[in-house]
Amino acid sequence: MRNLKWVNGLAFLTSVLGVSVCGHADEYLNGIEWKEPAVVVPGENGGAPSDAVILFNGKDLSAWQGAENWKIDNGAMVSGKGDVRTKESFGDCQLHIEWSAPTPAVGSGQGRGNSGIFLMDTYELQVLDSYDNKTYSDGQAGAIYKQTPPQVNVTRAPGTWNIYDIIWTAPRFKEDGALASPAYITALHNGVLILNHFELKGDTPFHRPPAYTKHADRLPIRLQDHGNPVRFRNIWIRETKPVVGKAVKKPFLRDDKGNEKPIE
């Protein structure tokens, strides 16, 4: 006769933990029928993946409005008079952009290598030569301007290339213009996390507190002219969308014989 404790232990494993007599656990299934993810070929060495929209490839400025006074020099677009905006508009996205501060370095604080990347033409991620250059913390490179500094300063020296990889979640607005959900940003600077799902308080002006004002679901990316010849290259963007799934039944367990048991 088997030891009673062993029998009771086996019963416990079977009934409570879902382990069968032969030692196989029941499989949990959530009852959701998922749409199969699209296949995307990744880029190499910061290159664009196969589903990206190329905003600048080093050859022309055809993706940008207002670029008449900007120029291309050795594969980089150099800021000139006036801001430039993408001809296409975007909402939720992944944005890759590389930038380099002028060399030799001229000026100090906000007057040195200043530009900005405006998501949805409204929300600024600061571009600034913050290599051995003091300024107010929520205005340095990697800051959401006047809202938060980056977690760390990983700015490279003028003349070398800095890389921003940005994950952007656009704000949502109600019919009456009220905010339904705020904007969020996650950003890496030279491969280092500097903003982790930061919740924006609104737009990013210099002269007043941030505020949300209802706008379109999709708007252009804007690069700022701040009087400094900042260089940009290898700019690409991917629209991001939620994973699609449909609940076809309630969650359940399935044993190794294919029998299904609902989860109470």
How does this structure look, described?
The chain is mainly β. It folds into 2 domains: 4-35 and 245-262, no CATH class; 53-239, Jelly Rolls. Helix content is 5%, strand content 33%. The protein contains 1 helix and 20 strands. The strands form 5 sheets. Strands 3, 5, 6, 8, 11, 14, 15 and 17 form an 8-stranded antiparallel beta sheet that branches. The chain has a 5-stranded antiparallel beta sheet with strand order 4-7-16-9-10, with no helix packed on it.
Uncertain runs: none
Helix content: under 10%
CATH domain class of the largest domain: Mainly Beta
Using only CA atoms, what is the Rg?
Answer: 26 Å
Main sheet overview: 8 strands, antiparallel
Derived structural class: mainly beta
Mean pLDDT: 92
How many strand elements? Answer: 20
Overall form: elongated
Helices, by number, come to: 1
Tell me the name of the CATH homologous superfamily of the largest domain: Exo-inulinase, domain 1
Strand content: 25-35%
Can you lay out the helices and strands and say which pair or pack?
Layout: H1 4-15, E1 27-29, E2 32-34, E3 53-56, E4 64-65, E5 71-73, E6 76-78, E7 84-86, E8 93-100, E9 115-119, E10 123-127, E11 162-169, E12 172-173, E13 179-181, E14 184-189, E15 192-199, E16 222-223, E17 231-239, E18 245-247, E19 252-254, E20 260-262
Antiparallel strand pairs: 1-19, 2-18, 3-17, 4-7, 5-6, 6-17, 7-16, 8-11, 8-17, 9-10, 9-16, 11-14, 12-13, 14-15, 19-20
